[in-house]
Protein 1
Amino acid sequence: MSDAWSIDDSDPLDGDPRLEPFFGTAYPSVKGFRDLLVREGVLRGLVGPREVPRLWERHILNSAAVVPFLPESGRIIDLGSGAGLPGVVIAAMRPGAEVVLLEPMERRTDWLSEVTGELGLSNVVVLRGRAQDVQGTLVGDAVTARAVASLDKLYRWAFPLLRKGGALVALKGGKAEEEVEAARHVGRKLGGGQAEVITASTLEGVEETRVVRVVREAVTSVR
């Protein structure tokens, strides 16, 4: 299996000349991360075999879509980083920010440490644990999450990690508005402002990404 995925030429975006200008100075790190996922992602249970030919569109560019809504400095916390999506991509594209990759599984934190070390992403902190484990000790200017949980759960996990004025910026799918409405009461109870659903685009022809952004307007206790 390792030989089958060691060289992947089936991704339609691999080698696309638009990628380097899109990512700018972050491109070498982002490309290096993608190549590591191609070589080891399936073997280490980080991505499914069917995802390898669409890593650029479904995973790397999807992760990059959230970056314009994140601060250029301060601390960004990525909940449930998993394979490093979107956290590693964010770290490459936001070199002036400290990016905390928070992940409860040891094999995944091992992977994240290896990847960020190999890519030379010195602005990354890999932390093993759940959001609940670091409440009261870790506070950021933004919290991100991708395919982690529904918004009502994310509010309970993310808001305690945000300073007042900080924002939860979550990657969501086509039912983003439904999730926002279902979690509206919880968000308000926990001090969240009006949730904003943003359609974010990357390259022409690549499916747009749904981003939910909510500012923590007041610091309240989490029940």
Protein 2
Amino acid sequence: MNTRSIVAAQPTVRQRILDTALDEFYFSGFHAATMRNIAKNAGCSAANVYNHFENKAELLVDILRSASDEQFTATRNALRKAGPAPADRWRAAVVAHSLYTARHQRACLVANTELRYLEEVDRKRVVGSRDAQEHLFVTIAEEGVTSGDFDVPHVHQAVTAVLTMCAGIALWYRAEGPLSAQAVADSYGVYALNLVGYRAL
């Protein structure tokens, strides 16, 4: 690898700050994390951090929006490759959603625990992708009910149960454990089919 490639592979100062902030929020929580510690651990000055981000809330919003957008993109990409049957689409969406959670545990856990500390304006900047993801799952589930593939009386409740189940992966999954992230995601795809009353013919 030449020098230019090595330089290109280095994270930008902004990305280094974001990565460090994620670690601070994960280990210390939003309230305990400080811009001073984030700057120190990112290897830059506090002034440099403030050149990129106005405050902790802006850092958290950026991290959560990026994670939510990436997870939503991964889910939509999986759906493009899935078959047309509601069961295939449902399983593909859940597997992709679960796989992202397993591979990005810190971001997903911070999203589920620290969002509550944001002011209403900042919260609204984050929840758009979440709402869009939930709507996507609801749409697939409703299609399955209409086609007769799924037997579930309360679609929104079932979707909430599935998304909550997927979010829980961030609490317990360990990359060094007996199951790979893909194996966990595939299992959750099966669990999710059971939750909407799917029975293969």
Protein 3
Amino acid sequence: MISVVIPAKDEAGNIGPLMDEICQSLQGLTEFEILVVDDGSSDGTAQEVIDTANKNGCLAKAIVHRHSTGQSTAVCTGVRHASGKYIVTLDADGQNDPADIPAMLKLTERITAEHFCIAGYRKNRKDTAWKRFQSRFANKVRDAMLHDGVPDTGCGLKLFPRETFLRLPYFNHMHRYIPALVRRLGGEVFISVVNHRDRGVGVSKYTAWNRMWVGIVDILGVMWLIRRAKIAEIERVDTNQS
């Protein structure tokens, strides 16, 4: 069983078609569920989730936050309500392609690490030249400071074990630093090149300005966490045999 977790805010018109694509990509491949966390939407996002699930017959849940709390909290809510061994996250705007999920699942067959993250890499982004420049610059700064080895931490399409995520420290915007936090656990990070598409309807909730300042603070915070991490290697566990 895998759980597809989608944080969504005001994504009516995008979330239904995205759920249909997820079902088309995963039906017959593996057991799965879709969890859409409606993060305080003012449109019909949650109702569209239920209507779509009734139409296509896929197992889906709509979890509604009364007030908007941000993408990281929405992801945490979804993971905590998930039943799957593996979690797949993707953005609700339709720019991530569910057709890339099977290749990521295939990659798990070769992974032996207990903790890992498969991070999507939008090699050919469908964004303006200015936005691509901002992302390249931000990724270079982040990698230079955190050494997470991920060329595109902003890609919402990721796969990781549920138990791994539950061991990560929670803070606002932590969803952008999952690979670095997995490495902090002693885990491994893998890269999967994925498709990138134009947004369906609506507009992005993010701008360069509202990302830049919090990004600096976040990176410094993650550096602090990494430097203070201690991983114990257990040699054996002795028990008293009666």
